[in-house]
Design brief:
Layout lengths: L5 E5 L3 H13 L3 E6 L3 H10 L4 E3 L2 H5 L4 E4 L6 H10 L3 E4 L7 H14 L3 E3 L7 H11 L6 E9 L9 H4 L7 H17 L3 E9 L11 E8 L4 E7 L8 E6 L3 E5 L9 E6 L2 E4 L7 H13 L9 H20 L2 E3 L7 E3 L2
Parallel strand pairs: 1-2, 1-4, 2-3, 4-5, 5-6, 7-10
Antiparallel strand pairs: 7-11, 8-9, 8-15, 9-10, 11-12, 12-13, 13-14, 15-16
Length: 341
């Protein structure tokens, strides 16, 4: 039987409060400590969420726990993962893993050298909708996949409209916040790797400075499949979706790019239309359960550190493409390079 974990929260975040604390406890784990750079915030957060230890010291937190969940701003992930790995703690880190592919690779290598599990918290690959689509494609139900489309344009709620819109040094912008999820979900559903991307970004007035609040683009995969993506912080009335179109059929996922276990998938072929059966398990609970099992020697996290490198490589290439107006190659092992489109 898997041993429950004592967790520490690095970052007194909204996502931890709304999703991760309950997910950890649902798997039998305990949240032993929370760290914030603001002592009052750490103390208040700990009391409100039944966490016995609150601190501003990462070293103090690491002494209390077996595993950490990192949900600080993006520029802090690299150092916090390296320090946690050196302390021998297993790590579930929010996306993007870092601000550069090189930093993310260093984080993965450090965790491997320390013998600790590193997972990337790409929750969408835990959704029943996307797992049903992956299984249908693997079973050949739509023939050879040719095209995919991701609609992930949403409205960023007021309580999250902070650094994501104003702080480039912290990894602000819709590409590092949402396009990374598209990239990971596409890789997972298609069981295929991306090779190049072309993208355009938009600043429609919600963000400040050079931070983008909308993006559109296309990704070419190794198989030749082309995938469109549309991401935004600014669209209050759009619906999310994920589609894959093949030689023998189409999969049409609706309301599925979300944190909740909702949405449907329609399979359309020459035989007609069929709604696929969907597992409604909480996405974060499934992710924490997979991570806990990996710590106990049973398989891998739902999204590994390598998966996090791939999604960051796509996002970095998309930003480079938008900057240079060129098709940009995606390489998770080296620095990105571009070519004339």
């Amino acid at each position: 039987m898997s041993r429950p974990l004592r967790w520490g929260l690095i970052g007194a975040s909204t996502i931890a409060r709304e999703w991760m604390i309950d997910a950890i406890r649902s798997t039998g784990g305990t949240v032993a400590s929370v760290m914030s750079s603001d002592r009052d915030r750490a103390t208040t957060y700990g009391k409100a969420n039944g966490i016995p230890h609150a601190t501003t010291s990462l070293d103090a937190l690491l002494e209390e726990v077996d595993a950490v969940y990192i949900s600080t701003t993006n520029e802090l992930h690299h150092d916090q993962v390296l320090r946690s790995a050196r302390a021998g703690r297993h790590i579930l880190c929010e996306k993007p893993l870092a601000l550069t592919v090189g930093e993310a690779r260093e984080m993965v290598d450090a965790c491997r050298a320390a013998g600790v599990v590193l997972g990337t918290n790409h929750h969408l690959r835990n959704a029943g909708t996307h797992r049903a689509m992956r299984e249908a494609i693997a079973a050949g139900r739509i023939g050879r996949p040719l095209f995919a489309r991701v609609f992930h344009a949403v409205y960023l709620p007021a309580h999250l409209q902070g650094w994501r819109l104003t702080s480039p040094n912290a990894g602000a912008g819709v590409v590092l916040d949402i396009t990374v999820h598209d990239a990971d979900t596409l890789r997972f559903v298609l069981a295929d790797d991306p090779v190049e991307v072309t993208a355009l970004t938009q600043s429609a007035g919600m963000s400040q400075g050079n931070v983008e609040d909308g993006a559109m683009g296309a990704i070419r995969f190794k198989s030749g499949l082309l995938a469109q993506f549309h991401d935004a912080f600014t669209t209050a009335y759009a619906k999310t979706g994920f589609e894959v179109h093949g030689t023998d059929g189409s999969l049409i996922g609706t309301n599925c790019m979300t944190q909740k276990p909702v949405g449907d998938v329609l399979l359309r072929t020459a035989a007609g239309e069929e709604l696929l059966s969907i597992d409604r398990t909480n996405l974060y609970e499934r992710g924490v359960a997979r991570f806990t099992a990996a710590v106990n020697g049973e398989g891998e996290p739902a999204a590994t550190g390598e998966d996090g490198i791939w999604s960051l490589a796509v996002a970095a290439a998309a930003l480079e493409s938008a900057k240079t107006s060129r098709v940009t190659e995606i390489d998770p092992f080296q620095s990105i390079s571009s070519k004339v489109s």
